[in-house]
Fold Uronate isomerase.
Amino acid sequence: MALHPDRLFPVEPEARAIARRLFESVADLKIISPHGHTEPAWYAEDQAFPDPAALFITPDHYATRMLYSQGVRLEDLGVRRRDGKGAAVEGRAIWRLFASHFHLFAGTPTRLWLEHSLETIFGITERLQPANADALYDRIAEAIATPALRPRALYDKFGIEVIATTDGALDDLAHHDAIRRSGWHGRVVPTYRPDAVVDPEARGFLENVEKLLAMTGEPATWTGYLNAHRARRAFFKAHGATATDHGHPSAHTENLSAADAARLFDEALSGTAGPAQAYAFRGQMLTELARMSTEDGLVMQIHPGSYRNHNPSLFADFGPDKGADIPKATDYVHDLKPLLDAVGNDASLTVILFTLDETAYSRELAPLAGHYPALRLGPAWWFFDSPEGMRRFRETTTETCGFYNTVGFNDDTRAYLSIPARHDMARRVDCAYLARLVADHRLDEEEAHDLARELAYGLAKRGYRL
Amino acid sequence: MALHPDRLFPVEPEARAIARRLFESVADLKIISPHGHTEPAWYAEDQAFPDPAALFITPDHYATRMLYSQGVRLEDLGVRRRDGKGAAVEGRAIWRLFASHFHLFAGTPTRLWLEHSLETIFGITERLQPANADALYDRIAEAIATPALRPRALYDKFGIEVIATTDGALDDLAHHDAIRRSGWHGRVVPTYRPDAVVDPEARGFLENVEKLLAMTGEPATWTGYLNAHRARRAFFKAHGATATDHGHPSAHTENLSAADAARLFDEALSGTAGPAQAYAFRGQMLTELARMSTEDGLVMQIHPGSYRNHNPSLFADFGPDKGADIPKATDYVHDLKPLLDAVGNDASLTVILFTLDETAYSRELAPLAGHYPALRLGPAWWFFDSPEGMRRFRETTTETCGFYNTVGFNDDTRAYLSIPARHDMARRVDCAYLARLVADHRLDEEEAHDLARELAYGLAKRGYRL
Amino acid sequence: MALHPDRLFPVEPEARAIARRLFESVADLKIISPHGHTEPAWYAEDQAFPDPAALFITPDHYATRMLYSQGVRLEDLGVRRRDGKGAAVEGRAIWRLFASHFHLFAGTPTRLWLEHSLETIFGITERLQPANADALYDRIAEAIATPALRPRALYDKFGIEVIATTDGALDDLAHHDAIRRSGWHGRVVPTYRPDAVVDPEARGFLENVEKLLAMTGEPATWTGYLNAHRARRAFFKAHGATATDHGHPSAHTENLSAADAARLFDEALSGTAGPAQAYAFRGQMLTELARMSTEDGLVMQIHPGSYRNHNPSLFADFGPDKGADIPKATDYVHDLKPLLDAVGNDASLTVILFTLDETAYSRELAPLAGHYPALRLGPAWWFFDSPEGMRRFRETTTETCGFYNTVGFNDDTRAYLSIPARHDMARRVDCAYLARLVADHRLDEEEAHDLARELAYGLAKRGYRL
């Protein structure tokens, strides 16, 4: 049951041997984690994590969605209803329920991440099942109470060199301040994620913009609003940020005149903007934010194409981020054109594109990134952060835009304990891909070694200017 | 030339050995055939099949379309014109023509199915070619005249445990009645396919609905029409049906108010419904039929995305189902939302989705099935019922929705003799996929054995409530 | 560093051995190059090629786009600005700049083509890098000054049997004339590419049509215009052409009445046609040109789905074909229907379809080509003219339309020295694909040998009627 040293490598012995050699040279490289969702409070306060279910199950929508799809109620997995109804569920009961459904995860990355964490952090090499659920629960609960498994200790144990969090535009970054003031050697940097003050359809948009303007002392004008963004970006940058992040329903951008943009802003702020205006405003803001990136050097990340909260009754009961966001077809070639017309030829800018629509890899994203100096491709994302997903990403992009128009791996996770597992998976899959290119003589092994290092470490570090 | 025991397995010896072991444990499992198009009359009357051409070529649009694409006339393959013109063609002449074009099928599943049938049923291990066409024709003709190759004997020889037919809503199920009354041990169940009374654009829609209402004694109102469906479903269920089937141009659904739906029904029945109304009505009916499934427990199958009768002159001459149905892009994430809003969270409901647009696997179908309790994914369908098609289905869905949100294999065929060949292919390809996961240490071989059994037998049996 | 004899073959020894045997039997077959962009002047004048940079870098948009995407200026690669500003750059400086960025091409076909050319034509087996850039430059420069590397000598050295060029409808084919009159044994045939007189949105459309009518003595009427095409096609055919080529933004076709088409033509010619009229006119012309092909037997090629000149500032500075054409989603099933309704059942017609949208392979193109007698599939095109691109083409089309509804390989290149490299790659990848089918017992090795020969030679020769 123990983790096999050759996992995820090609089965053919010659290619496997190459993959082994490549992986050996990158397995112990420091982790660059330039995009993710861990809590800055963890590093600031360095408290022990709560019980195993709260650590591994309840907050992980990969885990809860699979059980939900097979008829398990979210309440029974510890997910709290918005109306506060329903009794709290014991961690142990959640863990048992999970154990009795663990076979559902066969063939999924969630299974591989969990088993990697259990073995490397807790020394557990048994497959989770009803019979051993209680024993494993106790063992994990005991371990996470110890100082060796507190966030800062794990940061060192995991070999993290730098980790980025994702923070709203209105965030005071107090935890990031506290981390810095504490004198701890870890490097935790914020990321500027302004969706809530950029999307007129976001919950509380008007209040959010009001706060933004108040925080920065700017007037409620288009110019004031843009300057407020500039001020907050500078604030984030002063706290170590090197990047911004933008999760939009589509990749749509606009390149309006200042007058038209100002008019749109006034509509948005008056609360009269309908869906078409909101769509246009979000699009215009991507271009404005890209222009700001040419000024302040922050790397821009665009994550489009998720139909958020597809399940309205689940959303009503439990709120967002419960596994009901569904990918949709995304058109980059037309949608990004206004932004690219404005800033696409600026080689000092870096815009990193992600997708949930794999058809865009070979048809649009690799051709775009293989041409525009400002564009790079982010790694296989979300549902595609998986062995087959990563393989398809390389197979459908490399031939057109090469390796150097990509930016290495990022774990994009709120599951802190899974971070080493995810980087391990990405490094293995990339080494397996490179090994196949070496084995059929498309690359020399020597350059494959250089590339393996770039994919595991160099590209992320340089791509995100860390 | 004989069938190789390792066909469709991985070539790498280690993975091949695993695939062999997995396949050995499922090769002889009984066949569950929960969706198909064999004729209930075959089982009821148990007559010998006609000549080899009528058995293997003329009714098989996979076979005739390939020859047609290379300039062979359908008339020469025995396909009769609607206007009755043209002389009947002798089976032997058709067979010879087919033999002289058999090289066209290299690399296709049709070739693999045919050769499997020839060897396992007729003991023929030579490749079909002009030189042996007559001899093979005689050998097959002789064999199918014997009692051992009648439908009921083949049912046993093939190891079928249960087989579903597909039957119009107006069908009297007389053959199913006859089968039951005959005391034969075979289990042949009908499937409720109401497209002809659901689609206002279907040929004869108004007459069909009239018949439906007459059969059930319901009035020509929206409520009466829905009750007529309920009555027919109950009739099918009483004859053994466990499922319904819906072949729609798109996955579009609606969730209208009862008043709006009633108005739409009245338009459809008055013959004034245009394409937009027909589109909406079909969409509304999918939701209504899903609601009925929550009442009566029938599993619902949705087969969308075929552009039927793409070739109008061929349709005029020969009618439907002559190989001129072409897949088109299909949007599940928006189209299914109204139905899912209505019943998607009902874990007692099973809706099985199929696609002819492979891009939907990883982008939409696996994410949807990995979340909604009511959804399951049907196997790779029609043009994708093939080794590469099945492999891509597993590779692009498993990581997101696992194995247990799929429902095993179904052969979907009217080619009775190919049924064992198709299940053999599916079992081999699934074992090959599992073997690769075992070989690169994503699964243990022990659990792969359990999964192989589920994919070959258990998932179909439970998924279709058989 | 030298080219490995097993490059691009399966790694698994059994499959590799089969691939070797298959490749041996096709490696030395003559090259049929039925679609490409070499200059007829080369063969007519037989002059030495200029310096290495002008040969390998400046005109190759695959090469320049990759460097541009990483911040290199096109000016520094020798690409001249339209306004004539900027000093000419020395070939040696361009070569050095290229050498210092050569690592960007790891994993791309450009790298494999270049290394194949360097070794087989110049005997260079070192990897290009800054340290050896000058030495290799000198070596290449010296060699291309010799008679052995002039266009006609290379034609023989490369083993070309016939090569097609691509020529505007207004071209006088003087170079083709000169080639024929010279008595040289090489076969260089033109291809009729009328986009500039067919697309109302093409630069200079009105002048182009005026010239077309003047050349053919036809009046400025719809009938005159169609007859002018007929006359030019006859002229091309008399110069050896066997095919036409059409590069349209989409696959859209129309099948209008003669009166409506004539009205559209009048609008186009009056300069009052907007985008919708231009779109309709282009679509109508595809159908008209297909009809002409049924008359004169010229094979019709349709290359849709490129968003040309996506980067307007680059286009303003440098003009078209500088690496800024980006693929877009393409719908064949609806777009081609009017053309297919008109002529799709004509088995004497050959229409060859290409795509930049790989999702169409399995969903639309293979099902269409596997049905309509007039349709064939062109090989993996442009960004997909690569090992993975070719593999995906076979894996997603063969099972539905077989091998015989495809037309072999074409190199589609203006990079003359890369022609053997490209055919070598295509033959290897096809043999690798066939070897896998043999190794897992989907094909016999004997028929794989026949198929390898068809894919490398026979299908292109027959498909293009050469």
About this structure: The radius of gyration of chain C is 23 Å. Chain C touches chain A through 47 residues (CB under 8 Å). DSSP finds 21 helices and eleven strands in chain C.
